[in-house]
Each structure stands twice: as C-alpha cells, then as structure tokens.
Amino acid sequence: MNQSTILNRLSALDTNTVSDALDFLQLQGATYGLQPLWDCPKIVGRASTVQLAPKTDAVPTTHLLTPVIDAVTTDDRILVISGGIDTVSCWGDIIANAAKIKHIRGTIIDGMSRDIDGSREIGYPVYGRGVTMISARNRQVQVDSGTPLQMRGVTVHQDDYVIADRCGTVFVPASRIEEVLALGERIDRRQALMVRDVRAGRPVSEVMHDKQFDLINQGAVDPSPSPHRNPKTASAEDEELVALFAGSDTPAVSDALDKLGIPGQVFDIKPLANYTKVTVGPAYTVRYVPANDPPGSVGDFIDDVAVGDVVVIDNGGRTSCTVWGDIMTQYAGVRGIAGTVIDGVCRDVLYAIHHDYPLFTAGRWMRTGKDRVQVAGVNESIGIGQVRVEPRDIVVADANGVVVVPRARVREVAEVARKIEQSEADIRHLIAGGATITEAREKLGYHTLQRRG
After folding, report:
1. How far is the C-alpha of 380 from the C-alpha of 330, rounded, in Å?
2. pTM score, two decimals?
3. Which residues sit opposite 156 in a β-bridge?
4. Quick one: DSSP state of residue 134?
5. Residue 348 placed within a domain
6. N or C terminus of the chain with fewer C-beta within 10 Å?
7. How large is the C-alpha radius of gyration of the chain?
8. pLDDT tens across 290-333, in order?
9. Residue span of the structural domain in which 99 resides
10. Which residues sit in the known binding site?
11. How far apart are CA 294 and CA 297, in angstroms?
C-alpha cells in the first residue's frame, strides 16, 4: 500500500477511533496532555523525531530544530519533539514559517511553544503542553534526531504515523499501520451504526452493551433498532426548583452561596465551549471506580435519567480514560437530558460542540474507559471538584463554570442570587447615567453583596 493511500485512510479517522483500535490490539500510542495550542485542524503524517536537552555550556550552537527542518524533502512530515522544559519554549513563529515553507504538516512538542499567534496567522498546526514567552536560546539544545524518543510515556520511532486533533495526539507504529487502519475503519463503521441506533431511540444500554463492542472486532452488524422515547419526565417539584434560577447565571449563584456560607463552587471543572445559555437541572449522580475482572457496565445508567436532569459523574478526577463520548451525547440529547458534568475527561468533543450539548469536564482525551472503569453506584452522595453533591441537588452551569445548590436551600439561594443580580444591574444603570464606578458601587453596597451577614 502506498503512503498516500495510508495517510488518506488515517485522515478519515479521528484520534478516538485510532486509540480504540490500539486498545484492541494492546498497543501503546495514545498520549495525554499534548493538545492543540490554537484552534488547529487535524494533522496526519509521519514522524520526524527530534530530541532536546537542557543546555549545559556557553558554546554557541545552531538554533535547535533548524537542521531537521532544512533536511525535510517530502510533504508528509510531522515534527515530533521530545525533551521540552516546562516554562521554556522550543518552538516559535520564525521556525513555524520555515516549516510551513518546507510543507511540514505540523509540530507536536512534549514541551512549550511561544509566539503562538504567529503560528496561528500562517495556519501552522502546533500541539504541545502549553504556551510561554520564554525563549529556548541558551536554555535548550538539540541532541539528536531521527532516533526513537519518548512522548508522554509512548515510544515514537522515526517514520511512525501520527494523528492529532482536538482530543489529543496518537502515535501508530509504522510496522502495524495496516492492521490499525483495518480495525479502526471497522470500529468507525460500527460506531456509526451505534449512533444510528441511538438516534432512532434504541436504549443505549443495549447499543453500548459489552457484547456489542465485542462485535466490532468480529465485524458483525447489529439488528435494526426499535423507536424508544424517554418515559421518565421531570417531577413538578423539580420543574419548580429549576424555574427559580431563570435569568440567573453562575456568578450570581456563586455570590449567593458565598453570602449564605454554602460551599458549592465546583473546582477545576470547565465548560467544553463558550455556552451562551445557562444549564439548570437536578443532579443525577453517578460514581465510577476502577474496573473489575471481568469489567462491569460503563454507561447503562443513562436509561434511568429523567428529562431535564443533569448527569453528574464522579470519575475521581481521572484523566487516564474517558466516561463520556458521542454516543452518550447523542442519546442524552434524544432523551432530553439537560447536560453532563464530569470530574474527569470526555471524548468525541466535536459532536457535543456541533450539537450544542452542554458538557462540563476536567479536560478531554480520546482513550476509552471501557475495561478501565465501571459504574459503582448511582443516585448516591458523590464528590466532584471539592463539592459534595447529593442526588437531586440543583446544578447551575454556564460558560463560567459549575455550581451546585443543596436542594434544601434552593429557594433561599435563588432569592439571594436575584437580589445580587438586581443590585449589579442598578450599578450598571448608574454608570450608564454618568456615575463613576466608585460612586455606583458605594451607593448600592457592591462590596457587601456576597459578604456573609
């Protein structure tokens, strides 16, 4: 098979599917923490490896990476750079321009980049640990190239295959690429059928049962689905409590919680996108634990979630595997579920973003949780982001983050939040009328709005 055909087939997949194929074949390749450093397109190519190390002398050297860039003669290369130092850049806009001219497809750094706007402006994809302004000059040197190196615990060889997208970065051994592609394509077809079944209303507990995943490796096709609608509707009390937060947002609710001395702001859980709407609903709590042998269920609980509920998942803050993907997103949307909050990571994020399904997580990664974690309990007390969540507590989430309001204090919190929002609206009105911000804040007691007492 020629290289063009291989790369085209790999381009038709995504990192989630390739990661699953590697799992089936018991191969390492999925990395965590190497994310797009701007809104990069997906990149697929072959690795040109570069090893960096700290500079230990004052002898002048050629700028790192430039010999490797100059040596590129084909248009299928992705620079794979190991040995980066936290806070110190090993990539910038000048070498991005040089790489672009040489038709290099992108750069993946186990390290940092600077001048990221320069890479964005020319459309040059850069993936890595983060961005900084600190130069590598006199701090790092290139010590090798074209040799095996470590990328977040994965050994990458020169000419291995690389795929990177919004969920992260995966490396595929060149010697196994055809096997991985064949299985990945089978997984992709199978997952498409599963999504079709979910869209048609088939219970996700049947669609995502372990026996269905086993069929992927056998290439079998599932029977046709039967339509199914969510029979679980919101109670009158749930609807009343949710309605109390109409017009409120998380900053106002957070201030109300502070004023009442209630811990409820969820730490380190962020929105997947800049949502323009506020998600409010009763918590349907789920707790995951490491998988047994044989492993248990990963997602059957969703058939018991009512319309308007927010699924709140305690995955112990794990970033090593996901507990939510596009099939769950699609099914939740069909079932009228309000959104999902995860103390852990999600995957298949493009589907959630394109369909505007509210997801709030500690991050995103492509590796499946199947056979790694399992559901240990539902509708029980859990902890997420340093906040205790009881079943049916009210969750409020938006582009600012997530807060949880104890059910017994919802009316009290909602009333205080409304008063705070009105005071802030009055401050904005005074400012629009010509008052200084100091005058407006003093007149309406801005500095005491969230103060206890």
Report:
1. 25
2. 0.75
3. 149
4. B
5. yes
6. C
7. 25
8. 999 888 888 889 999 999 999 999 999 999 999 999 999 999 98
9. 28-172
10. 325-328, 347-348
11. 10
